[in-house]
Amino acid sequence: MPNHLIHETSPYLLQHAHNPVDWHPWGPQALEKAQQEQKPIFLSIGYAACHWCHVMEHESFSDTETAAILNEHFVSIKVDREERPDLDGIYMNAVVTMTGQGGWPMSVFLTPNGEPFYGGTYFPPVRRHGMPAFREVLLSAARAWENDRAEIVRAGQSLAEHIASLTRWNTDPAHTLRPGLLEQLTQSLLGSYDWTQGGWGRAPRFPQPMSIEYLLLRSARGEKRALDAANHNLRIMSRGGMYDVVGGGFHRYSTDDRWLAPHFEKMLYDNAQLARAYLHAYQLTGNVDFRDTCTETLDFILRELTDPLGGFYSSLDADSEGHEGLFYIWSPEDLAEVLAPLGLLERFQQVYDLPQGGNFGPRFILQRRADLPDLASALDLNPDTLRQELRSAHLALLQARSVRPRPATDDKVLVSWNALALVTFAEAARALHRPDYLAAAQKNAAFLLSALHPTDRLLRSWRAGQAHLDAYLEDYAGLILGLLALYQSDPDPRWYSAALSLMDEMQAGYADPAGGFFDTRADAAPLISRPKDYQDNATPSGNALAAQAMLLLAEYSGSADLRERAESALAALQEAFVRHPTAFGQWLAAAHLALEPVRQVALVGNPADPALQKLVDVLWSTYRPNLVAAISAFPPSLSAPALLADRPPRYGNATAYVCQGFVCLQPISTPEELAAQLAT
Predict the structure, then answer these.
(1) Residues 6+ positions from 497 with CB-CB distance below 8 Å
(2) Are the C-beta atoms of 301 and 293 separated by less than 8 Å?
(3) Which option is the CATH number for 182-326+409-595: 1.10.20.10, 1.10.630.10, 3.30.310.50, 1.50.10.10?
(4) 555-612 pLDDT, tens digit each
(5) Residue 565: helix, strand or coil by DSSP?
(6) Strand partners for 414
(7) How far apart are CA 637 and CA 239, in angstroms?
(8) Reported pTM
(9) Residues 88-93: contacts with CB within 8 Å, 24+ apart?
């Protein structure tokens, strides 16, 4: 007999729809039931690709005795954190406050009013490693509610007030962005960088694509140590382990310091952001291995995470056949069976670290011994020859792996995660001359604007033909950035017009008069606090994306109001950036956009004229981070950016106007002249 989750679309919720637990989705029905019956709420938050979520589902939520305790004493609510980041953020703050740490599955006990009074993460079915048994936790919480209700309510209200206080920013209007801020941020990042293993912090090691992006931004301004650190981290991660050398794409994080043994789920947001970092590093350095890592990752997304209608799926599970990582690891016999007939086994053993007895139980996670140029030199091979041999080996292994039982796919489409991928596909399309990437970006944008913006507002999630849940700030701001990236690769004014329209909706529905934006719409159902997150986590915060989107649109439109709002938010948080730079990676990029000069380029001419395309090619011939471009026939459409106004072709030829603050240099018509102006 299914429970109340059976009509949901989230794969994570549907995984629990046949539990004996009387699960409810978050909503009026469950909340009213808790109020009417005066029962505490047991709130469980997780996501489809989460290994320990599967473990707890199997051990506890499928157990009839545990379910009986939950059904008797609690109203049980299940939430997909990816669909409801507002609930996840609020109650994660509560769990971290209570216990000092958080994670998923998240287990939180609430009063009927939604105030948290106890929480944790995974609880085992029996006492283990110092953790109490889940049934013991349930019975203890039930007894406390019966015997100490007044104290629990008081404590819950106090904790709810603390959580609400976290949304308040320092908005002193006297604060302005400091001129030396960017140098401080660079030194702060470099000062905590691990020059031995790469990255920041100890195991588990999470990739930090936003921090790497900031170092690449500074590299483009000539800061060598920033480029050294970015190169170092990118090289180490791409050797394998956390990176899937066979099929492309990155796993969620490394459980060890050597980036070898990953937590095997693959998330769209990681792969979108990391592919972009590798793209930019390739543009800066010309390192073809960075290019290959970028394209292999984007090809993985196209192959395994793309819906026929154009949306990108959320994730691949960590588990297959009941075991974490089984899909991705290899026995010695597996490798010999596939590679020996091709004459590639010996070369593979020379390149990959395959210790006797395995490096993941008796099997292997594939990780190269060193960088490819160094390996080629040691083997006295041309690097391109070695790359080709490895491509052949990887393709053979990919074909062999394709017959294995696959990890489950979370095939819901989330706007903000899709927006991250849209940016990367659009940028890679123009930088690498990949029409297939441009087609993917165009199809994705069209899908998001139709399927997830059916009426007067953007929605968050789509699956199997159904879109639901109001969008969050990160969805609006992320999609604006995605559309602006696509507009620069495909100068169709509808992309720019849609970005402007979304900005108007975002400001109307999410703006906080005290500064910044709330994460939820003004007309959203009330929670114990209206969330206003500002730290970047695995994905950029909505407010950081909003600041960046306002700054970019200000460059296109000349809007002083958008720039002032963005700079005010940046100034309010700049001290936190310096103290904790890895927690504000997207904000650092926004600060760079605010403080460094931005080149505005208007290109006008006949779209079919090869001379116009030659000018476009100059724009994207190298990494130019603080550049916005508008490309149009003349006269431009009424919906085109103000940057194109009063910029006619010179003598009927394709013409480029290079501007800063809408003040332009002499218009020019040759690629050589454009390159010279951009280089000054």
Answers:
(1) 639
(2) no
(3) 1.50.10.10
(4) 999 999 999 999 999 999 999 999 999 999 999 999 999 999 999 999 999 999 999 9
(5) helix
(6) 461
(7) 48
(8) 0.97
(9) 88/45, 89/519, 89/531, 89/533, 90/163, 90/527, 90/528, 90/529, 90/531, 91/43, 91/45, 91/116, 91/119, 92/45, 93/163, 93/166
